[in-house]
Structures
1.
Amino acid sequence: MNITNRVFTTSWRKGNSFIRIVTFSTKPQANELPPFIQKQSQPNSTGSIEGRKSVIPQNYRFIYPEFLPDPKVEWRNPVREKLERMDMLDRRTKIDIPEFYVGSILAVTSSDPHAAGKISRFVGICIHRDRCGLRARFILRNVIDHQGIEVRYELYDPTIHKIEVLRLEKRLDDHLLYLRDALPEYSTVDINMEPENLDDSAEVPINDIKVVLRPRPWLERWERQNLQGVANVDQYITDKQRRQALAHEKPWEKYDMMKQYRSSIPEEEQKEIFAEVHSQLHSLELQRKRNKRKRSFVKPTKLA
Amino acid sequence: MLRTLIIDLNKLRLNPVVVTQVREKGHLTRPRLRNPYWFVRKERLARDTTVTTENKAFVKEIIKDKYGPPAIIKGIPSYDQSALIKTEQYERQPWHEKARRCGLIARKIGQYPLWLKNGERIRTTLLQVVDNHVIRYIPPHEYKPAQKPNVANLNKYGCLLVGAESVDPSTLTKEYCGLFRDSGVMPKRNLARFIISPEAAIPAGTPLNVAHFRAGDFVDVRGKTVDHGFQGVVKRHGFKGMPASHGVTKTHRRPGNIGGGGEKGRVWPGTKMPGHMGNRWRIAKGLRIWRINTKYNVMWVQGSAIPGSTNGLVYIYDTILPLRKHKTAPPFPTTFEEELEALTGPSDDIWYEDVHSFKDDTITFQPETN
């Protein structure tokens, strides 16, 4: 059992070598794995459990995190969750909701009764992604005319026409809310940006850029959040704040298995959930790939 | 009786010297508040020490023979009784505006948003009708409750006993199981009585489903609110409390002054104070049904403030709000299982006309034409 588990975790790691996405899982994170296991890892993208090959890709919980329900036990109900998933799939047949992460650059086109032409398009960097089910939502941020603009979209809102991923990448943190306190160039995106083509088989790149913050006052105590993507937190805080940040650290929480268990959906249940929706999601993915191929071929035009 | 006799004897004045004392409570006598007959002890004291596995298998077999095989019916683990229950022939009567229909027993299973066709997002709560069966109808001349419900002209209304959620009868007392004997229905975990007009009576043994209501109807949902226990004034009544610092000591979450002086030098009745919060029966009235799913017996009801916790029991009634009552005839007395297919078609879902179905195309707004 132990061995199969190890093979499983390593193969999972191979497929998804990023770590700071909100995972909703009890699995140990990749950097906690002892080195000797990493050596035996084999490039097996599907993963084998108990000798049988699972068809469901292991990275579905990162690509479709909103399909996993809220882990709070008091709020769970199998029938509700099932109905919710069915509605989500119904919506996904009408609109292509692509894979994206915090840090990716998106363009969202949506119906807006107040916009000229009744349609609006907003380009920005995804700084936050939360909630599950039909409530799933994300925040896009951009700086337009020296003014920071954020728009919060709901993933399954039927007024959204199109969600395009202009640049698919990840960052070092779960959220990029600190961009609000950073220099504006870090959240400025060209609104006429063209989508960058990324090979389908390639791993999603991690952008390890370090953001430079403006001097205090800040919206939050960033120094207490152990942020990886910030360059100069130390520059602006006082000794007292440094001491307090140290006092508020909770280094034992990573060993709190009960806490992890309560805040995540167990692996077995994840498998059940994704087994239910896998066939439809997979066919939607194939369709998306076909469309993408069509789009990437541009017929040369005659000049003059 | 005794008293009148004594008074009569006194009137005769046979022996005027004798003074008989009559000691009784007099004004304190009031009718005994008897509970309805279905208020009997439900759970049996389990003594499983002497029960062998063969015994258990035998009990299961008996239950299967008597009530049907276990089955999952509309997403609820239950027993398949359709072959065993035969309801009597029933003649429908026309609906009229004063008629009171039966209600349903449901569980609150969660909440999620729906969108209207104009792009507006609404919050809805999902209520699942859990395996409801009619247990008994008590006609008006027999229904004489000791504790009178607050219904005008009660003598004109009968009472319909409805049960929800089948349970293994070997876990229940004999008396409780006896309540279900005449209907032939599996003993139910939950019982509720609905006060109905005699025209709306439904024969015992009939399963009730969510199509008892239509999408677009308004309902009242009654439930017991979440129990918060004894709470202070900040949580219970939303008082502001007092500052955390600036010299404030020991009064951060206290109510402060609770009454004036002089003429009104007392605490007035109804003053908001700390006390027990929640665990009360509350009715959320006039909620619209946005959507109905007949496969899982689920209805999507307006709002996220339905009393009770998720997976808690609620009771659904036709609304009593005068402007939201039925204008046209609802399914009367109810929608029977045979009529379900004609109602829904292939998709199980019935949407209210204003609601955007997730299978529909993306919402677009038409530009104004000047």
2.
Amino acid sequence: MLLGIDVGGTHTDAVLIGENGIESTFKAKTDTRNLLHTVTTALKEVTSGIDVKKIKNINLSTTLSTNAIIENKLEKTALFISSGPGIDPANFRIGENTYIINGSINHRGSEVLKLDSPSIEKSMNACIKDNIKVFAAVTKFSTRNSIHESSIAASAEGQADFITQGHTLSSQLSFPRRAATAYYNSAVWRIYSNFLTAIMESLKSMGIEAPVNILKADGGTMPAEVSKNLPVESILSGPAASIMGIVALNKITEDAVILDIGGTTTDIAIFASGAPLMEREGISLEGIPTLVRSLQNRSIGIGGDSAITVVNGEVRTGPERKGPCAAEGGEHPTLVDALNFKGITNHQNKEKSIEQIKLLAEKNKLKPEILADKAIAFSVKKINDEIELLVSQINQKPVYTIHDMIQGKKIIPKKIYIIGGPAAALAVIMKDKIEIVVPENYNVANAIGAALARTTFETELFSDTGKEKMVIPNLGIEEKVSRRYSLSEAENDIIAHTRKYLEKSGYKDKDLKIDIVESSSFRMIDDYYASGNDIRVKCQIRPGVVMNLHK
Amino acid sequence: MLKAKNRLGLVFFPAFDWAISPTHPEREERLLYTQDQLREEGVFDIEGIVELKPDIATDEDVMRSHFCFPDVRSVITESHMISAGGAIRAARAVLDGEVDRAFALVRPPGHHAMKCVHGNRGFCNINNEAIMLEYIREHYGKRRIAIVDTDCHHGDGTQDIFWHDPDVLFISIHQDGRTLYPGSGHLRELGGPNAKGRTINIPLPPNTSEDGFIYTIDNMVMPILDHFKPEIIINSAGQDNHYTDPITNMNFTAHGYALLNEKLNPHIAVLEGGYSIQGALPYVNLGIVLAMAGLDYSHVKEPDYDINYSPQENEVTEYIKKLKDPVLDNYFNPKPDIDRAPVGQFTLRHKNIYYDTDGIQESQKEQIMTCKDCRGLLVIESTASIHPVCVGIEIPVDGCKRCQSEGYKIYEKAVKSKEYISVQLTDRVKKVYKRVKDPNY
């Protein structure tokens, strides 16, 4: 059996899935002050009456790191950055302990200016005085040459309980994202590790020995052991859990839209030929871009509890929430109340909905029917407009080759899959334009997605054959290669190294499919003479589910 | 978080799958390191900077600026249409108000492509800035536009296209033609008989450095622009004045390029040449992007700046100072043509053009009408070493009734005569672009 737990901002869902589908589910409010308690309760409830020895795998999606960052419950972290020419590195300070060190590596990975060791030493002494125990080291172009990050890390040894080196997070370029990601990774490390250790202990005490994996924002998992060094990868995994739930519950093969309608927001995701789309660079947290890979997901301020307001005669829904809907005892009518009023839904106390809709209508000299109709129409239009915008942005995504410019595929959604509270109701209203699907068990899709998500992984190889060098930054690999090193050798190497790394790091997923997603070799010419090849190969294990729940 | 003072659109199209030939400077790798640098700097994440996908230019877009012989499809590849489309996208973004400024980092370049096109010269087939400019005039009703060409090579193609156009001010700053391809761009070249002083050439001596370029901008370019008062300023932004460029002899820097763009403050910049793809382009492009966005660029500096850049020699400074008066004179008091035809007649000019990349020799008979009501009908008969004679007829954007009817008369006569393998008519007034080709050719 496979166990999935999704600890969300308001609700925590758990599901246990056996060979024949869902065995049990559990839903409760999240106790944000005691996530450990929330998780252990969910574990106990969802497994009650079940032989825990039958559990083969546990996947956990948690908001712990996200909350720590949003609520600024971060450990004092020293960020060492070194940038060389370009944008002033002072723009990338985070927190109060950023140290800018002179030194420079260029875009080819060549050292241009040695790292200023005396200034590192001085800064390190300041850290010791401040009793700082966690560090992040990020230098520009460290994915091409990590020597400066390694030497900063070396000087922190002895003082540091934990240190993040930027190049270990991702092979992708973007110095500002690398700095932010490394900083957060170190700043949540202790709180995350302690949490994970506590979870492991409770599992042990419950007699559960199954391996534990942590959900990521890209819709995949990583082993708990790996997550200890990459806690930042656990942020914002909730929307991805829901999307993977939809993947498990439906056989999606076409271009499609996924809507997850919550209390105050609706999340929108787009599928291309049945596969969820990724963010191009990485997810942003509190407006700060990071290198954390993520499924593409757009959130707008329309949900079941969005307040209905009338401004200058115009009826609007959301984005603000003024408490729960009237049907649940709130004092202001919401989208759910409008749906109740129209008889589309029958949610809790319908009389209260009618009463509040009438009251607001009267206050604004409108007929109640018209107010409810307009509030629903406004919501549907908002959602449709946002879908249209997102699709057009995806279709306008820049490309860099003539081939992609001419042959590039355009996304045209054929279906909308809706989950979340008012899903069924909105499906009725939206269906005249496009086919709408509301999957069964849509209210625990997030936990299902968590339970069934597979491992994901991404890495990139970079070689300058003129320098006889090959690196795979986030695997920590740097090798000498021959001047005749070829693209096909590079493709073989990256797959072999990735497999070796995954086996060593406790990835249990069998038959992992590693795809080469980008592969290029540029002839480099210096003064009209060939000076080698610039080879770049990127591979990925794409998100997917270990089993399907659809018929 | 950084926030751009000017919202900036970047059309980045490196054409990673296109080259003139495997070891040609204009090859796949050219913008690879620029992309690396811009991505590593996080430029695309700066608030106010957006990356835009190029449009694909249409045959009509090309025919608005060029006479293509025997036709558009014979002289272009897809890459040219995307590069020109990239410039158009940049213009649309600015004129639609999506952004305040735009920079099209596209390749292949275009500023050596002239009015008539038979093939590739100076790495260029069609002229990206000219196609963009005519797109702006046709779709946005703008009239007065200035192009400042800061490529190290004389922008002879752009000069040729706007030679007869009094509403387009073309200023080219370049390494003196006596020392570099294409060999033109001398002080005495200042526009056709109906557009005198609307072409301004500033031939700078080899080894011109930061001081010389900035002096030129402050003392020659800006006073002329301030007087001309263009609605739109375009920078034809070649980056081969850099001290590391392998095919030129100038001494300019990334910081200098950034400062130049800050002073010029162009609405749109379009990348032209620049072939020091590792040592210059990543830094120059970054500098221009930051300057156009109104951001601090003081930390943008080549890694070898302190070792390989040297300040300007006195001799060079003195030479450049002496250019100021004749350059300003060319704009403010241009000498009229003595051989200009009387009203109602054509002024005739014979030209020979060599296409260095494709090895084509072209010879032209160009006629421009002297007209008191418009800028004059243009007729060019062109024979190239690869085709028999072709003809292009252009009724200008403000074409008067007489020039219009005369244009159609010449067009119909040319078609009927069967003397030409290709006859192109460009009627900017009615927005008609047509061509008759010899079916046997």
3.
Amino acid sequence: MKHQIPMLILSAVGTLLVVSVFVPSAQHWGEDATLYFDIIAVFAFFLGGGNLIRVHTEKVSHKSAGWIYSVVTLLGFGIMLVTGLFKIGNPNGIAGDLSKSGSYFQLLFQYVMSPLNSTMYALLAFYVASASYRAFRAKNTEATILLVAAFVILLGRTALGVLLTNWIPAQLSVLQIPNLAIWIMNAPNLAGQRAIMIGISLGVISMSLRLLLGIERTYLGGDS
Amino acid sequence: MKHIKLILFICLSLCLTQAIVAQTATDPPAETAPAVQPPAPPGNVILKDLPNDEGHGILVRWDLSPDDGAGRNTVISYDIYRALSPSAPDSLWMNVGTVVLGTKRYSDKSVEKDAPDFLPKKTDLYYRVVAVGAGVRSTPASAGPVQAYDNWFNSMKMPELIFCIVFLILTVRFINMAKRGIDLYVRPLAGIEAIDEAIGRATEMGKPILYVLGIGTAGDIATIASFTVLGRVARKVAEYQTSMIVPCCDPVVMTIAQEIVKTGYADAGRPDTFKEDSVYYVTSQQFPYVAAVNGTILREKPATNIYLGYFAAESLLLAETGVLAGSIQIAGTDQVSQLPFFVVACDYTLLGEELYAASAYLGREPLLLGTLKAQDYLKAIVLVLMVALLALRVITGADVISKPFDAPWW
């Protein structure tokens, strides 16, 4: 029963969603089904919050490695929860909008959360540089092709690419670096991407079918 | 001489009078100008149930007014009105839409029951189309009654249905072949074959395995595919008696992942070694999640990092940190834009569809391999179809590629 009931629910809801794609009058069934997902997700957020408190409290109480980070996490969680729940500093009081300018919640979000988010995102630039350094070493034929293609695209996207090859006559303009960069992006790159996307689409259908027919049951455990 | 002067005076007077009359004829006084004529009404209004919908749409078509782009050329737009009775007073005719000059059709569609312009199904409806000029309106062209019906099948989805049926037939065929014991060859996936090796390495090093399910929700198919691999990895981890860390970005994902890992340990016969805290919730925010997981990687120095699921900008941040920590890294996602980052930073990458094939490949069960084989065959069919349609397009010039997908089949 532990396996049969979830399988039954999955097959019924999955079939319903498939039918709603092809039958116009059943379109709202799919929308209704996703509403149930949202309702379950609301309850799961309590589970998530509870799990976060429990895991980090245990780390602090056992003084596990990196317990100080858990203190910061718990403090951050508590402060955001209290300022958001009681709308502290909100000009319109408890009935005011959560994102009202001047509320502590909004201030924390604007001056702590957003800059930290931006910092993490900005790190990406350095990570791209270090990853590129490793990837663009001409170790073999494929890596050399990658290196040349990347070099052409990098040049083609800058003014230097235009300066270097603008002497090429209009009849041979395809050889100008910016045009070569456009061709690489629009022809070989796009073709490769589309090939992967076709594979992904078929993979999605295959995966969905395995789940709907009950062939794939690993997520239920037991392989039965 | 006196007579000549008189005659000249009379002639001049006559000319002047004629000129004044001519002038007044070209500049008539404003109060005598004729009123701007309203445009002629549009003709031949035809009403039809909107096809491929859920019964709340009517297609209104008409012939252009003779004054639309021709004649007096006074039409600016067309107003479309709807009423429940042809004899309804003007106040009950609801303006359901306005289209610019030159337009010959309008789809009146309103599904929301609470909307003021809600279009009821199976109810007699009447329409009027009025040509609108600058401050003037034509007499309405009326038609009706018409009823909106829900359609049992969306004929625009015919290609998808055909593909699904072909795929289903192929899958059933290959599953039957697998059941009969026919050996189905599936090409090796290096990334999947490396999982066993990676778990073994973690065991030897006495370090944990980090499994990241991505930032998708439990409803994302990539996350579901990752769940299926997680179950198999958890079982192997339990068998090898090594430890596992699964930080989650979504509470629903965490709940399911906890259950899967727990079951994996139970299946391996070691339910007592399962630690509930090994699968935990971090945050639903993308970059705070990355910060937390990167911190875990740098502190715990896991022997193996497995990233399978839905990933966005965090893919490279995670994978590069894994490189710094010296972990073996296996990644897989269906996000085409993130694949290059995983390819450069990870030891093994599952490209798109391989993520979905991973669980079947790990299990090597005939039923699952049957679906993989069907997938490969359908890929070949799609390839042949694409080449054939392209050739047909080049030879005949007919739009055989996009038409089947853009137009209703009946």
4.
Amino acid sequence: MVQGKIKTENIVAALIFFFLFICPLFIDSYSVLNISYFLSMAFLSLSLTLIWGYCGIFSFGQAVFFGIGGYFYAVLTLNLTGTSAITPLGLLLGVILGGLAAWILGYFMFYGGVNDVFVGLITLCLTLVLSTFMGQTAGSAWNIGQVSLGGFNGINGIPALELGPISLSGNNFYYFVLIILFVIYCLLKLFTHSKVGAAIVAIRENRERTKMFGYNVPKIQSLVFAAGGALASLSGILYATWGNYITPSAFALSSATIPVVLVAAGGRKNFTASIIFTVLYYWFAQGLSASGSQYALVILGLILILVTLFVPDGIIVFLFHLSDRLFFHRESKMKEVQEEHLHEKNIG
Amino acid sequence: MKLKKISFKGVTLFLIFTLIMVLALSGCSGSSQGSNSKTIKLGLLEDRSGDFSLVGIQKYHAAELAVDQINQQGGLLGKKVVLDAPDTQSNNSVYQQMAKKLILQDHVVAIMGAYSSASREAIRPIMDQNKMLYFYNNQYEGGVADNDTFLTGAVPEQQIVPLMKYMIKKFGPRVYTIAADYNFGQISAQWVQQSVKQDGGKLVGQEFIPLDVSQFSSTISRIKAAKPDVLVTLLIGQNQSAFYEQWAKQGDKSIPMASSVNLAQTYEQLRFAPPTMANMYVTTSFMQELDTKYPGAKTFVDAFYKKFPHDKYVGQEAEAEYSGIMLWAKAVQKAKTTDRDAVIKALESGISYNGPTGPVTIDPKTHHVIRNMFLVNTDSKQKIQIDAEYKAVKPDWLSTAKGVDLPKKPQSHQYTPLGN
Amino acid sequence: MSLSSLMNQFINDFSFLILAAIGLAVIFGMMKIINLAHGEFIMLGAYITTLSAQAGVPLIISIVFGAIGVGIMGYLIDRLIICRLYGRTLDSVVVTWGISMVIQQGMLIIFGPSLQGVSTPLGSVSFAGSTYSVYRILLFAISIGALFLLYLIFMKTKFGLYSRATMQNQEIARSMGVNTNRIYSMTFSIGAAFAGLTGGLYAPTMAISPTFGTGFLMQSFVTVIVGGANPLIGTSLSGGVLGIVNSILDTTWGTFFGEIGLLICAILVIRLLPLGFSGVVEKWFVRKRRM
């Protein structure tokens, strides 16, 4: 339905991906490195958009799967350095593990009837458990194989990804992340416009009614949550390979909150918006930090407050709609988004 | 058809609009230049916000003072030194990003900084990878042997070893250690354990405390139950400093406390009302109270407060930062270039400068510094008394016990007393 | 571990959990807002108390100042920001996160990274071979007093009646002539004031810095989660249960196990009783009334 229409969102997405694909040709290697970090973090936002924006599961725990992915990859690859093809295998297994962990957690929550804000609270607790636990693993007792978990210091020297003879660093890593992001973005778009996707949106809008239609709500919720976990885990692994480093602060309250903040402020029902806002946020936050200004955090905080107050559907989504109206003469009001979804559901 | 036409026009308009936006944006973000012919860019990574800003701001200000003084004396090699100092926000991930930015985008000639050992370990591999000269100007748990890294703060053989010897001799053999539960605390506690053994003492208890803990009543009852003669506190961060107030009320103030980080680093003697911090013993390379006895310290402290009149304290890490920059500057002058290899060579020639509390000299084998150490204690009014002064203490554990000789055997490793 | 040290530990843990959570519980329970700026409210209370105590105001009045000051500030924040978010639970997460960033960094800019503290008043007493800080025992009494105050506010006043009505069904309450927005503002302000009180009470026992509140966050969230929506029943029950769990684990195995124990308790409770202790109690009451 939407694919056929020209909308600001689609044009912007196409432009951005086009720009990202060609930009290493004319920006310096540091910027490429930096953007690949921002893009790695975009997966985390995508995972939350999927489960919160589309399925209505409010999770504080994406950081849990992010950290699990990063730590798993670190422990596996550092234990088996030298083994051929261990890094892509670690990536794959890490993503599966993240998905599995999320599925197990989801199974316990959704089949147990835990929903809404309580999912947020339970995932928040889990984040804090892991952050407390990993923080105290500084002692020599906490070794897995030859790898010390390192406590607050975290694990250093995590090997970069290698695809056969190609080591994924610099531009290679950038394109690797970009291509995965592009593929996953397209898959998510297709998926959410499929029949199952419509069911997911239906669960967000009304669980009871969806159940009446014969959908197994907890099953779908657990599966979506698992997919979100896998995406978050992917993000964690990419982050670990980017900096060759992972610490318990990946589980900290601030790390758990940031994806929620990004997705909410960018537009939580829109994948394009959350990617764009994530990249902009990290870019801006880094710039503020680099400026060394003591007002950096104040400015960042104020922006978040203002965005939530004045553009409740998210700043990027708001801009999309504004531009839709300006350039494409579509009388798209904010409420139409939901109607559109309903419409899609009927057709889908 | 008509509809298609409109949207085509829309698309065109939209694209033009986007193009303008992008141009406007790219116009705004001016790219920064590296060291040019007129200036030398020195990177500095310190926490100016967040949990560690208590020390980070002191260190940042000390660095500004050092650079100012260098520039007042004509700069280096006829160029002005410029600090490139992002705020690392007490966040190790930001440390990594900013280290990469300083190296790859800003092209600084050397990087100073980091407070917690975790931050140092987060950026040290990046320095190694990019062959960047790095100064860690902070007292720490010791053991880092790295060709690209110089460590100008005090190490355990300068702090914990003499302190434990003194404490056990003066107060008795039973020692209880509480330490922050991360690498700094764990490794420092190993040092305490080893010193206690060597000096004929007995470790009656050892406890590691998570960094976010601020309530200590169970720890306090355990300490009291163990009846130690000496209580070693290696606590880090704002939450953990709540221990002292609670110990003063629920604990036993007659048990003397010993530490390598308190007083001189986080000025508890000024932050807590007396007699909370009374009866504490600390070995340090510098603290502002030394200005009553040492003219060099007085000059430094006066210059610091002249530049930063609103600051509350200048302690051992600030001095280490200042000395680190001064040593680097001296090495640059000797090497006549800011080139990494030449500067490292100049530093490894055993370069020395006269710091606030006497000469600070690079030990070529270990890349640490030989410096004067002071053992101080607090009286019941939390005034600082100087108990002992140790002249030119060598940071020789790495070279004697572990056979480290960096100019001859390049490596990048952190040794621990009970590990390898 | 002797019984007296366990008792001592429990007194400490119980009062800490209750006082850490009470402000958060009021705001979460009544307004369904997850207030991530809770730690910063506590920190502000500590600053106000410390600054006025240093200016020569007696400590007890300074603590009251702390509570009132933060209460007023809470009212302002609600009028300016939060009132636009009533009913948008999840957006409030973003906004309160933003508020916490602004407050924490703002205090760092204004007052610097540290502030000289005031020492803990009242000495200590020896009893059955161990030393107790009198102030700690007082804190225990105050935590129970605070719960009682909460009971008075929400059960014995007209405001309490209106606010409970609003909490149960906002639409009907409004149609009955209750100014629900005012009720929400008052509730937020009361929650903030309790946080300020906590900050003031703990200011003499801890180091004062802009990150003062982070030491309370985990405990406060866990207590509220375990307690459930009703701030009074929930907080007191979960404070009691978690206090016992924490003090036993802490005295036997150490601080770290105490912390982990709390968190695992919280996860178990949400899984088994998603509405927390107060949900169970309420259900039980409803059933009893029906019989």
